Fold this protein.
Amino acid sequence: MKVFVTGGAGFFGATLVASLLKKNYQVIIFDNFSNSSEEKISPLLAKGAKLVEGDITDYKSIENAMDDSDIAIHLAASINVEDSILNPEKTHNVNVDGSINVFRACVANKVRKIIVASSAAVYGEPENLPVSENSPTNPISPYGESKLNMEKYTQKFSQNNNLDCILLRFFNIYGAGQSDAYAGVITKFMKNISENKLLVIFGDGSNTRDFIAIEDVIDSIHNAISNLDGKRGTCYNIASGRHVSIKELAQLMLSISDKKLEIKYELPKKSDIHHSKANIDLAKKELDFHPKISLKEGLEKLLKLN
Ligand SMILES: NC(=O)c1ccc[n+]([C@@H]2O[C@H](COP(=O)([O-])OP(=O)(O)OC[C@H]3O[C@@H](n4cnc5c(N)ncnc54)[C@H](O)[C@@H]3O)[C@@H](O)[C@H]2O)c1
């Protein structure tokens, strides 16, 4: 089977491509390296992944690159929430218009199976926890708005063209290989711990997040591949189903690393929601998705690697 992965050089894409190659899939990585590098994926290229450097906002280049792929996994996106506030049109251009190009190219190339990366950001500040797939969607950032918009186009394309399609709403993913530039809080804390610097928390540390290890996220993609038949843009929460406050997270990481570093509290960020916790029953039931790695276990592994 040939798999076309947009954003395949990114944090999550590169880990996914490695696992696809292990399962003997042929892989085409389509990426413009705006938040990654060719050097980083050279081990994947050495193992047989094909690279097409290109931008999803350029329709023709995707149409040509997709070739005779059997399945498209669409991960490429402009992911920086703060940047989306400063440059909403750029985020929209990549995440909505670029995604439409990917779907059009799938139709043109008769690629009838698509898995698309969405985000918990579509929910905004939840009214009730945990959030399930039919909870209200009220994104607070242009990034979240762009993902919600993308979801709607995905569903229309899937329904109008009979494409088997699944949307995965990822919560906070952590793991090795996340780029420094737009790193999540775990990557930032890890860097400071390794450099013996204080940890900075925006707000009072009571905000909560549902963190999921990259290895469990990769499993969710394989489960989605196995369960695509007949789906027309169904959304699934992909998360651990547990939440932890940012203060507890900092304390846990300091205790695992056995370091006594100061925690500094700064003004909260406007684009930060307060609480996040997913209900993952639908993914458990329909995708057979069962996250295996506890936060403590995942952090211990990550801090050991560092
Ligand atoms: N990391 C998380 O916690 C998280 C959470 C929710 C959703 N997601 C979603 O998962 C997907 C992957 O996220 P990630 O964390 O690996 O991000 P990432 O930035 O590491 O990876 C995205 C990749 O897409 C590429 N890219 C960006 N714009 C492009 C364009 N116009 N054309 C071609 N390639 C382009 C980047 O160079 C990068 O390699 C994204 O769609 C993101 O919105 C991630």
User: Anything to note?
Assistant: The two ends are 35 Å apart (CA to CA).
